[in-house]
Design goal:
Length: 308
């Protein structure tokens, strides 16, 4: 298994001199297991990935692409219309995302191409695409040597966490999510007041199930890519945004005995120097619990042999 980060910015893409080293593209990760190509999220990072795949000296020789969407907030799908393999008749694309009773995945993704948003409708794209809706807490194979497991994340309008498992490595992809103690997110908007809120029994049980599900994705994983958009003091001001902190991610990764934690979904305002400082501070803390830690940056490539 080889993992490569193509976009690690949260909320919206950024550019400029302060964002050069970690990059400004939003969520997109490439996972390669032998001939199987998996793409996690279709943020703006999927655009340069698509270009690389279509170049004559492409690093991978396959025309079958499995795209897993955590949720359809803009930052996780806004690159989809600009994914160059969509224009290639030889591409077979399977897009996976959460089953929702009120709006099929296909309607949201295909709807991002076409009137009034895009000049070429989805139905005119030459690639052959099918959509597969997934449920929480399931495991299925997409190739003889590649299994995918899902879990529910604690995020407004809900999101799916994925684990990709193969004999050559395992990756947990957990974004976007809040911790599992203070607020339970569902399909309704959660407003926040400073008063202490109490969760009913059912909400507490649901959060506990989510917490366990996320630990199950992470257990013994070679790599855990985790939403760490907030520093702890930022989280206390915006718990209703549905994002997490490095402290929380380290706690879970240590409990799951994962090998390497990758801080992900960087706040769009966070400069290179600020991310350097966060990485340095938390790397020392992670080392105390025998955990490798890196801040995600565009181009970061991870294999068992060498995490570069
Ligand atoms: Zn996001
Ligand atoms: Zn989101």
């Amino acid at each position: 298994m080889q993992v490569r980060i193509w976009g690690c910015r949260g909320s919206y893409p950024v550019s400029g001199a302060d964002f050069v080293r970690y990059g400004g593209n939003t969520s997109c990760i490439e996972v390669q297991v032998n001939d199987t190509l998996i793409v996690l999220d279709a943020g703006t990072g999927i655009r340069p990935l698509g270009q690389a795949l279509c170049s004559p000296d492409s690093h991978i020789k396959t025309n079958r692409v499995h795209v897993f969407i955590t949720h359809t907030h803009w930052d996780h799908i806004m690159g989809f219309p600009f994914f160059q393999p969509l224009r290639d008749i030889d591409t077979y694309l399977t897009v996976y995302g959460l089953r929702r009773s009120e709006r099929p995945l296909e309607e949201t993704l295909a709807g991002s191409l076409g009137k009034p948003l895009f000049p070429i409708p989805f139905t005119s794209q030459p690639a052959r695409t099918d959509f597969r809706e997934v449920d929480f807490y399931t495991t299925f194979a997409i190739a003889p040597d590649v299994q995918v497991t899902t879990a529910r994340l604690n995020h407004p309008y809900r999101a799916v966490g994925y684990r990709i498992s193969s004999p050559s490595g395992s990756l947990a992809y957990v974004t976007d999510t809040a911790p599992f103690d203070q607020i339970l997110f569902g399909d309704e908007q959660v407003s926040w007041s400073r008063e202490e809120r109490t969760l009913d029994e059912h909400s507490r049980e649901t959060l506990q199930r989510m917490h366990q599900g996320v630990l199950d994705l992470m257990v013994g994983a070679d790599w855990v890519i985790y939403d760490t958009m907030f520093e702890p003091e930022e989280y206390t001001k915006r718990p209703h945004w549905g994002h997490s902190t490095p402290d929380h991610a380290i706690g879970l990764a240590a409990q799951a005995q994962a090998r390497h934690l990758i801080l992900f979904h960087h706040d769009p305002h966070r400069t290179d120097r600020e991310i350097d400082a966060i990485e340095g501070r938390y790397r020392a803390r992670a080392a105390e619990v025998d955990l490798m830690l890196s801040a995600a940056r565009e181009g970061l490539t991870l294999t068992r042999e060498s995490d570069q």
